[in-house]
Write a structure and sequence with these properties.
The chain is an alpha/beta fold. About 40% of the residues lie in helices and about 20% in strands. The protein is built from 23 helices and 28 strands. α10 (about 300-315) packs parallel to α15 and α18 crosses α19 (about 540-560).
Amino acid sequence: MFAPRSIAVVGASRDRKKVGSMLLSNLLAAGFDGSISVVNPGADEVQGLPSYPSLTAIEGDVDLAVVAVPAAAVKEVLLDAERKKVPAAVVISAGFREEGSEGRRHEEGLMEVVRRSGMRVVGPNCFGIMDSASRMNATFTSLWPGTGNIALLSQSGAVGSTVLDWMLKMRLGISRFASLGNKMDVDEADMLRLLAEDEGTKVVAAYIEGLERGGPFLEAAAETSAVKPVLVLKSGRSESGAKAASSHTGSMTGSDSVYEAAFEKANVIRVDDLDSLFDAINIFSRMPVIAADGIAIISNAGGLGVMAADACSEEGIALAQLSRDTMEALEEQMPDIASSLNPIDLRGDASADMFVKAIETVSGDPAVNGIVLLSAPVDTVDLDAVAEAAVGAYDGSMPVTVSFPGGSDCDRSLEAVRKGGLPDFPSPERAVRAMAAMLRYRQSLDGEDPHPAPRVEGRREEAKEVLRRALDEGRDSLSEEEGKLILRAYGVPVPDEGSAETCSEALEVAEAIGYPVVMKIVSADILHKTDIGGVIVGIDDAEAVREAFSLLMERARRAFPQAKVEGVSVQRMVRGEEVIVSMVRDETFGPVLSYGMGGVFVEILKEVSQRVLPLTMQEVDGLIRSNKAYQLLSGARGRPPADVGSLTDIVVRVAGIAADLEEIQELEINPVMVGRMKEGSWAVDALVTLRRTDE
């Protein structure tokens, strides 16, 4: 598809305003080095090329068919391609899944041909593809950036065109481009596997609206990011894109937070907007990856230096601590320097030679791994000379970012910077953010841990029987007691407990367990018991048991008159810090584990972090340390340290449940009570919702 020797454009006509004709014009203008054929039964020739009535009428092989005909005619074209044994096609035509159920049926008809023939297809409803090595511009835009090292993937043709136009302005070239459209066949995972092995691609940038094959994407993205950066702009961040769920964490784990966790798992660099995508492409395509933390800021304007320093603090990238030798060398070479501290202030009338001396001097400091170069457009500075000096002084040993913030006075100077191969940015903050994105990529590479979390061998059949019984009864959730049976089957510690239908039975259970105890309402129809006061703690004698039983029954009747109340659960009361551990099965990426502050705080503070399964032990440890719950566990403000090791074990076991039991849609343990060091942790509640796997 991306290295064809022969291309057939199906649907090109003499009307230059038609999409097919634009495609043909762009192929010719880019200088495609293979043969081009035209398929149009209503014309003898188009744009100087002979026209054929069908693909099958073309003499010789066709490697790639580019299809731009009305939607109703596309299937017949693909059938001709199958007869002709065309291995690849790009379907530009719209009018399929994006237009509703009827269009979806048409698209399924295309897929029948694709599956049967083994043909690979980009589209339909796409913008086209490019390959700079073969000078192929099979799109309907004349924006041709030329040869470069950037591969661009876009679900939206308009966004792809926007990035291509920016690349032209910035003097950046393309290696390969694909507008994927409806992704009927070829998707991001396929493209990433191709680009991982493409020697002409240094950085991959992608605009994504949604993924359907989450698992293959994660595998391909992880493989690719191990050898080159993968940048993703994912739209649809708002809560309106999230699906409702039964559990607390399910309701907070909307589609965007799951995508965030998935990208982190695959070491994908997610950017928030087009400007950030532009900036990341700019630095990664032009510069070597930063070796470690620590940058130097060189400026002829103190204010710009302060802005850059503030941005370093916000982005989590450190200002390098310059050595005494470096500062003395700066002061010796430039006696009138305003400051040799980092940020380095060269004064408002600094010459180009001073910039060169500063760059060469700080580059030799072992604490410096990147340089941010800033200059203001003032009359006391020859900005063109500064630009040329910066380009001349750059030795390729570390990344350098340049910012000459301003207007037209900076344009000529910035053009010299771009021609010289340095990345420039409209503001000091964006120059720093680009460097910070590069540092995050470096740290993700350095922090990789290939060791998976240990496999949990639970009593799988015992747990399966609990799930089968509930599903056979037509239920979509388990009772707390059934949920705890699942937990026990996988070795998750649960406090001693018993169930009681009457007050006298509750007394017997409490006496057998020993005070203090906790009493909870038992009903499969009441998922969140704390919301109705359905949990009473600190019950320490028989009279308190009687009062609690009566109160729980009354609260259940008042809040849920139609609920089937089976009685109460009486369990040993354990003490510790409350956290939440849960799993939600995402439609795109599969099981997602969540962790955070538990009890009532989970909804109030929404302090929850996610990881996509399967997990490495590094990911388990990172999950537990990722939010404020860890401050409570690690002994904040004089608290005794908690038993984090036993909590880690519970997280691993919940991951094992998720891997084994596909019938579970959501599993929430809120709270997990984490005891003091070496005391252990316990699951004191269990909410389980189900999904059918046999339909």
